[in-house]
Amino acid sequence: GQNIDQPTEMTATEGAIVQINCTYQTSGFNGLFWYQQHAGEAPTFLSYNVLDGLEEKGRFSSFLSRSKGYSYLLLKELQMKDSASYLCAVRGPGGSYIPTFGRGTSLIVHP
Amino acid sequence: GAVVSQHPSRVICKSGTSVKIECRSLDFQATTMFWYRQFPKQSLMLMATSNEGSKATYEQGVEKDKFLINHASLTLSTLTVTSAHPEDSSFYICSASSGRATNEQYFGPGTRLTVT
After folding, report:
1. What is the pLDDT of residue B29?
2. Cα separation of A44 and A35, whole Å?
């Protein structure tokens, strides 16, 4: 099985930087996703990491360490619209390409 | 980019009735569609995976006779919640994959079901 852990809630100030951590324990690993989900809406894809290291995409970056079972999502120059839930999802071993989602981290950005 | 639609976006029904939710891939052929359920402040829980033209694969604990899934074409999957009860009230989200070597699922906008 898979166990995914993220903080429940975080707050940050507009313009600041915030790091959302995700740790996972799986019997195998085949990639990690980050999704953004605004309240009452479907998740939207942010990033996908399968190799160790940092992937940068505009204001958002995602880091993966497979040996530590650890990932983080880094959001820079925070904007009010970044207030949302951020879901970490891990794809399992073998032929299963269906990711398992964590509970999500609710990020509140205040002025 | 790939677009997935869901209909209806919101539905209120009485206990004991059935509700059908449609999921369509608008600009690509979805060989595989997924149905998720999400309770408030909870994670997305996969209910079932459906492949076009074959029976859906249900996750453990999901009643296949209560949640009927049909994937009749490469662009349409339906989820029917039969004999709905208030505890079935939730946010139902579908996603679709083209089934090739893709790393992405494309999510629909979700359907808010309220059973009174």
Report:
1. 86
2. 5
